[in-house]
Amino acid sequence: MGNYKNPGKQMKFDELFRLLNFCKTIQTEGTDPFDLDVKRFLETLKHYHKKWKSLEDLLLDADAIAELAKIIELQGKWIKDRSSSFYIDPVLLELKLKMLEPQQLATAFFKSWHPIISLDRITPQRLTEGLAYWNALLPLGERDDEFPLPSAVESTFDIEDLIELNILSETEFDDAVQAVLNELEERGRIEYHAFIYGASFETSVKKAYLTSYLVNEGKAELDINPLEEEVFISPSYTNVNAQAHHTQSRSIPVSLSYEDWLRWRVRQKRN
Amino acid sequence: MESETEEELRTRTERKVKKAAQLLFFRQHRIPGVKGWELKKALGEDYVEVIAVLNSVLDTLGMEVKRIGEEGGEREGEEKKAERDRFMIVLKSPVIEKASGERIDNIAMLSATLAYIISKQGKVQRKAVEDFLSDKFPKQRVYFALDRYIKQGYVGEDDKALYIGWRTRAEVDRKALLDLILT
Q: Domain-by-domain residue ranges, chain A?
């Protein structure tokens, strides 16, 4: 903000800044939003409205309106919370909680608790998949940076996680998978990394994720040459091995790292 | 196309209910339960009706399918909302005395934490909860316990503030908890 030599102007700015700070305090400290007199705030703004001349004046006015809108929103939420069945005077509850013995608190919890019933079971198929994963995994010493450890199963992302992270939306997921399948059908049998890697590492990871769905659904097949450490991918119909449909599924870890992608890009530029 | 006989319809429904039970009882993801769209994919368009049939079966065993909505999803249409909701099986009214191996003091701390957060309109600074709990428990134990509740899903953490986690929304009757504490 500039320096205002006009004392009258300085006064109105002071008043507005004071109100703005009060709005921000309510938002950050969580104090009662009804402490702010909205009507008076609006009257103050109206009072100064005709005197605004510069862009800075108008920006301050807009800022004040925006802050006021946030307070009104908080007031709405405040009323909603108070009228809900969960509302309880925090001070009263705090006092009560301090008075209760741990045993009493635990009893209250158990009486209002409806535990989720969920079981973990390792199926023979999952065991087979685990064994196939183990068999395909190179010893730790041989993997090094060239073959980094794949992420733990517990921390893998599923579609929901990607939707939550706004990387994909449910509706566009099928389209995205189809687009990758179309590209694969166009390019035919190809080395896996040559197919996955693209202009950016981010899109490469996304493509690898989508490709894993194609493989899972049997629309694409991976052909691994363990001696050469080469992995080829092809659309299912190009694979002449008809037995593929009858073989048991297994997990295949294929590494994808930023360093590897960088090396791939350098090779691409050289070629 | 020939219309389905009553017998065929019953067999198909039984098959779907069995599949729904397996999907809901056995964990598919890190978080228990199944999303509506997953059920729709596995059971078909009438998945909500299938869940209703399963619910009536579970009722006799003291269990029920609970539907947990996402925060802020109220504006969506019913069908779309159901697809985004998470379905899970919970005990309707616990008849067994002990359904957890947790220590009593851990449960007491959890109970106090949840009540405290609820009383502060569902969100409170972690520091405030730590100070409150450390009135009765050593600080180190409090830090450890809070981290554990976050990991278990009872409490969520966002920018040093704690809020009610997905698991509390699924498992705890919050109104009953407050009533029990206040009476």
A: 1-112, 124-270
